[in-house]
Design a protein that fits this description.
This protein has helices at about 15-25, 30-55, 100-120, 170-180, 190-210, 270-275, 280-290, 300-310, 320-335, 340-350, and strands at about 10-15, 70-75, 85-90, 130-135, 145, 150-155, 220-225, 240, 250, 255. With about 350 residues, it is an alpha+beta fold. It is globular, with a radius of gyration of 19 Å. Residues about 1-5 and about 50-60 have low confidence and may be disordered.
């Protein structure tokens, strides 16, 4: 159940459709082919997710893990598309020779640990939900996704994208879609959808920072660093510090994310620009974390987590609604005269979202 009285799992991918659309139009079939195939596959999976949800074709309830320990299972699709695939590593098993399997296992564990240690949350649903992941999905599949039940990773085409288990923030990003699914259940369209995407970027980045022991000042604030192949002119999929600067490539095009409401993109594509306009709340979070300093998961992350899980954030919330709740959460947790409230208020003002 969610705080809004519903349960609407969505199909969420880390690579935005606008990137794949751009690639799919390339004259080189080695670039356009995998992108076209990924778009088709994503469309099929999205449709399947919609039917499953509409007709309540829910999976069999899973065993719950011990409250303070993850229960991870990694499967290998062996470049097929049947999920979950062949079981290749269970919780507590030693690492094998497949680095992709080991990275997926470690990434699930890192996500579990951040939510438990920083916020006292026991897995994605707060009740010990087992964490399942499938690797080596499909041939040259250029994406990773949360399908409402589990994580799935492609290996990339090797030309534009490499193995999707490499960036730990990608794993944290997708699993956080599950946290949002079980809490505020933000509608995956327009500003609520952009907030949904931003939540995943925020906590994906925090998981990376927590794992690396980085302060806000030391973090790169990039989402998907290490995912782009060496031939690509870019550093990541998105930048929270400087939205719009993650890539500028002849093949991929230029990162379209805005940092402020002045450049808000109105579009009917990508569910109303959820992967594009998420740059605005992303940048607000970066500004708060940077102003407060230290470990970003402690104060800035706590405020964002309080709002996501507090029960007042509706599924149709706009940026202004979310901003007001972050100010309220900062005030309630840290007081009226604290630097936390000042940082939150100033950050939203800087990105052009009015709180009052």
């Amino acid at each position: 159940m969610t705080t809004n009285g519903g349960f609407t799992p969505v199909f969420c991918t880390v690579v935005p459709p606008h990137i794949l659309d751009h690639l799919a139009r390339n004259d080189d079939p080695n670039l356009s082919g995998p992108a076209q195939q990924t778009l088709v596959r994503d469309s099929e999976l999205r449709g399947r997710r919609r039917v499953t949800t509409e007709f309540s074709l829910a999976p069999t309830p899973q065993e719950k893990a011990a409250s303070d320990q993850p229960l991870r299972t990694i499967y290998d699709a062996e470049h097929g598309t049947d999920l979950p695939g062949t079981k290749v590593r269970a919780e507590g098993a030693d690492p094998g020779q497949d680095a992709t399997v080991n990275r997926a296992y470690a990434g699930l564990g890192a996500t579990f640990e951040l939510y438990l240690k920083a916020y006292g949350r026991h897995s994605i649903d707060a009740e010990g939900l087992p964490l399942d992941a499938t690797v080596h999905f499909d041939e040259r599949y250029n994406n990773a996704f949360w399908n409402g039940e589990q994580m799935v990773f492609g290996d990339g085409d090797g030309e534009i994208f490499v193995d999707f288990t490499i960036p730990i923030d990608v794993i944290g990003h997708e699993l956080t879609h599950g946290v949002t699914q079980y809490t505020a259940n933000l509608t995956y369209y327009g500003q609520p959808g952009a907030l949904n995407e931003s939540m995943s970027d925020v906590f994906g980045s925090l998981i990376k920072q927590y794992t690396l022991g980085q302060t806000a000042a030391e973090a790169d604030w990039l989402i998907g660093a290490g995912l782009l192949a060496p031939s690509v002119t870019g550093k990541a999929l998105r930048s929270m510090k400087e939205p719009g600067s993650a890539y500028d490539d002849d093949v991929l095009g230029k990162d379209p994310q805005p940092a402020t409401m002045d450049d808000y993109v109105r579009t009917g594509r990508d569910n109303g620009g959820v992967h594009i306009n998420s740059g605005i709340p992303n940048h607000a979070f970066y500004l708060v974390a940077n102003a407060l300093g230290g470990n970003a998961w402690e104060k800035a992350g706590q405020v964002w987590y309080d709002v996501l899980t507090g029960g007042e954030l509706t599924s149709s919330a706009l940026f202004a609604d979310f901003a007001k709740l972050t100010a309220k959460a900062a005030r309630e947790r840290y007081g009226d005269g604290g630097e936390e409230l000042q940082a939150v208020s100033k950050a939203w003002e800087q990105v052009g979202v009015r709180i009052s």
